[in-house]
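1st attempt posting a full record on here, be nice pls
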Amino acid sequence: MNFKEIFDKATDKTKLDFLFAILEHNEKLKDEFINYVETQGKSDKTPAYGMFVSAIKNYEQECREELEIIDVENPDWDSYTPSHSGYIEEWEQYQEATEQEIEAIYRFWQNSLIDTIIGQRIETGLAMLIGAYEASLNSEINDTIESLGDPNEFLVKQHKELMKYYIEKIEQAAINEHSIFSSFRLFLEYCEKKYPGNESYPRYFEPVLLALAEKSGNPETILQQIENSEVKKKFLPQLVLLLNKLCGNSGDWLKSAKAYYLADNKVAEELLEYYLENDIDAFNRTANELFEKDKYRWAKFLADKVSETSDKELFKNVFRELTIKNAKIEYYRKIKNILNEDEKEQLINTVYSKPFKVQIFEEEKQYDKIKQIVEKNTDSWDFTELIKPILNVYPDFCFITIQNKALKTIENERGRNVYARIAEWLKLAKLIQSYEDRARELIMKLYNNKPNLPALKDEFRIAGLV
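the predicted structure (as tokens):
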């Protein structure tokens, strides 16, 4: 049984006993429960819009003052913790110290946000989050040494982490229904008046709105609030989709998904999942359309959903894209039997990695092409990977190539890394059938090299060559 089934089977007394046992010895949860009960159903605590705006301005000002006092050229060295114990360039120390100061400010705001959740002051928490966001956008940090790159971009990145943290705590809390409705009303009105027609602003906060909506037992009310506002539904596509789902409006859900899937990837994913279960032709049409918009992004999503029998071209396109971008032979194996020779050649020509090209040629048993790659790349760092598949296809060629490479290297280069690579090549030589004796002779010749090379001998012993 899953949790819901176990919970539903439990008696009310069992549930209450368990709840009381948890609350009795946890002061934070106890306060949260008291505030939840005391504010349940009370509408008189709803803040007016003017108070909400004033709170946002105050929080923005407070956050800006904390951020703008930071001196990038003279960071708080007393609080600085180096990222590692090794050598750190001076410019990197300044960067780390400044970033740590900023991160500490946002951590302080995390604690304040938790207090608003415990106190069932969700509207205040939302105002705080908005104020901190606008401070992140508008703060003027004098970064003449460019420790932060674009300072405001860095601040917004920190704010996103703050918002992520807030969402996690919302998801773990019991939220008063009235506070949820009030928060939506105030947020929508704020967007209407402060950012009319602006899509990016409400969209930025959509993850928070989704978390609050999930906590509501009356999604119809929230949906109606959006309907009545001047914030267009297409500005909040994931939220509208979720609310329709929670309301059980399957027709409206599908209508919304079809309206917004090209504007929002998450909506598109949900629509594809729906079509995969209910309308495979619509799935293939939509998948092809999305794939053309962003091939690699959608190839990753579609990999476990496309079918060769359902749409051969889509299947081919998805795994061709994954083959090229990820350089994994298992993707190539998915399509090797449905690609014609021209398509195979085009695919191979787009592959940058020589070791991966060798893998494809090995899969196709085109050993002559592997030999050509080896001939042209004997000095490659990937030499071992390139030559290994043809050791026993072209044994004479491979042994002579390895022998010449080892002798040339020992003549011109020194150092443990060099000797380790030579040992690696000689281990390959030992794998060539009928060349075992010649390989041993070569090993001993190098082992007894004059002048004497103790480090080389050591590497040979480590590799198990002697």
